[in-house]
From TrEMBL:
Binding site for FAD: K52, G115, T145, G146, S147, D315
Natural source organism: Kribbella sindirgiensis
GO molecular function (one): dihydrolipoyl dehydrogenase (NADH) activity
Cited InterPro entries: Class-I_Pyr_Nuc-Dis_Oxidored, FAD/NAD-bd_sf, FAD/NAD-binding_dom, FAD/NAD-linked_Rdtase_dimer_sf, Pyr_nuc-diS_OxRdtase, Pyr_nucl-diS_OxRdtase_dimer
SUPFAM superfamilies, per the entry: FAD/NAD(P)-binding domain (SSF51905), FAD/NAD-linked reductases, dimerisation (C-terminal) domain (SSF55424)
Cofactor(s) listed in the protein's UniProt record: FAD
Full protein name: NAD(P)/FAD-dependent oxidoreductase
Listed transmembrane segments: none
Family matches, as Pfam families: Pyr_redox_2, Pyr_redox_dim
């Protein structure tokens, strides 16, 4: 066994771990990443990048067909082989050579193997050949191991060789028939992608579609999927799955059956904490990690584990299960660890440099379905649950001149959630073609707590879809303009 010493040790080499390490090194410390799979993590090879590559060609084709002249120049269907080849390039053909080169350039050390906590600030890394390396941290150990697909206890499911998001993202052949269990983001996006690539898709959800966002957004996506030929079953459960040489059969709670060649399970995530040695610090393996506002791991009573040397960032702490928010946490945490190492106090006040305020006030998300969904901050439902005094302002996106020019028969909706006591935006959701580009304006308004009377002076260019801001503010103006 060999031993190595660094200022900070990060278990997990995905985007979150990379950002922690980069900020630590920029702060003058040494850092080592421990990774047993591909450097770059889930997002690079089995999630964000490859799945969006699967979706993009179909989105471009829909955009062309939404215009009369451009649509006449387009004939035929998508070539799945070409789509998959482009996907392969964005997944770097599942090679992390480029990511490792970046680590070397950034001055970040890489220790290959499976890391387990074996003592105070101590991680034992086991390589594939069985040899071990002990990695010691002077200041902190950060867990950034992310999450994996959750497989529900449906009778027969495990024996039917189901796909998870990984198999769907890395697919090499489009099945003729695909059944999807789960109507969240992964299920909805993959129903969009595989339907466009020629599969007959059946989606089964025990809730409405996209339950994490405003209900009108899910309704638009549901209608579009059905119009595209997807069979959508809502408010029903899968009670049994049977697999054989001819494919799989799903039995639903309403008595219906679904025949498919493959079944994709998209029913949530589970933390990658089962084999990290958490028992050495008094925590239960397999649980989500509780953290305080500094991202220090805490026990059930809210007290820091040990003397506060253990941190968790990204999916594994369950604050926001989105890559960009995990990276945001990683940047703040890496900077804070470097500040503490210098004997200084981090800035953890509201919107402070080392705080992760956006996780609770301005979490952002784009769902790349047809149509797109863009959301930031609180929904109407979440606002009500939090007991906030709010105004809900809705507007038909299709009535905006820029949207009508963007695509014939443009359909969509936008919503502002306004804090009625302060007249500032605390939530925004839009659904419609290409609404993702509206999102950052809303994010800035929420993070900057821009009063509506000042936001009124942010004049949107005409004719663009961004004119929705003028229409929303006009609708709400009687409440804040004298």
């Amino acid at each position: 066994m060999t031993e190595k010493l660094f200022d900070v040790v990060i278990i997990g080499g995905g985007p979150v771990g990379e950002n922690v390490a980069d900020r630590v090194v920029q702060g003058g410390l040494t850092a080592a990443i421990v990774e047993h799979e591909l450097v770059g993590g889930e997002c690079s090879y089995w999630a964000c990048m490859p799945t969006k590559a699967l979706l993009r060609d179909a989105a471009a084709l829909r955009a062309a067909r939404a215009l009369p002249a451009a649509g006449r120049t387009v004939s035929g269907d998508l070539d799945p082989t070409a789509v998959l080849a482009r996907r392969d390039r964005f997944a770097a053909n599942w090679s992390d050579t480029g990511q490792v080169e970046w680590l070397n350039h950034a001055g970040i050390n890489l220790v290959r193997g499976h890391g387990r906590i074996t003592g105070t600030r101590t991680v034992t890394v086991t390589q594939t050949d069985g040899t071990s390396t002990t990695v010691q941290a002077r200041h902190a150990v950060v867990i950034a191991t992310g999450s994996s697909a959750f497989l529900p206890p449906i009778r027969g499911l495990a024996d039917a060789a189901p796909w998870t998001s990984r198999e769907a993202a890395a697919v090499q052949k489009i099945p003729a028939r695909l059944a999807i269990i789960g109507g969240g983001v992964v299920g909805s996006e993959m129903a969009t992608a595989f339907s466009a690539l020629g599969a007959q898709v059946t989606l089964v959800s025990q809730t409405r579609l996209l339950p994490g966002v405003e209900s009108f957004a899910g309704e638009h996506v549901t209608a579009a999927l059905r119009a595209a030929g997807v069979s959508v079953h809502l408010d029903v459960e899968v009670t049994e799955v049977r697999g054989d040489a001819d494919g799989v059969q799903l039995t639903l709670s309403d008595g219906a059956t679904v025949e498919a060649d493959e079944v994709l399970v998209a029913t949530g995530r589970t933390p990658n904490t089962k084999d990290l040695g958490l028992d050495h610090v008094g925590l239960a393996p397999g649980d989500w990690l509780r953290v305080d506002d500094t991202l220090a791991v805490v026990d059930a009573a809210g007290d820091p584990v040990g003397d506060g040397w253990l941190y968790a960032a990204g999916d594994v702490n369950k604050r926001v299960l989105l890559t960009h928010h995990g990276k945001y946490q990683g940047r703040a945490l890496g900077d804070a660890i470097a500040v503490r190492a210098r004997g200084e106090q981090p800035d953890l006040g509201p919107w402070g440099r080392h705080a992760v305020t956006a996780d609770v006030r301005a979490a952002t998300q784009v769902i790349f379905t047809d149509p797109e969904v863009a959301a930031v901050g609180l929904s109407a439902e979440a606002s009500a649950a939090a007991g906030k005094n709010v105004r809900i302002v809705d507007y038909d996106l299709g009535a905006v001149a820029g949207a009508a020019l963007h695509a014939d028969d443009y359909r969509g909706q936008a919503r502002m959630v306004v804090d009625a006591d302060r007249n500032v935006l605390i939530g925004f959701t839009a659904v419609g073609p290409d609404v993702a580009e509206l999102l950052h304006a809303a994010t800035i308004a929420i993070a900057g707590e821009v009063p509506l009377h000042r936001l009124w002076h942010a004049v949107p260019a005409y004719p663009t879809i961004s004119e929705i801001w003028l229409r929303l503010l006009e609708t709400d103006r009687p409440h804040w303009a004298s």
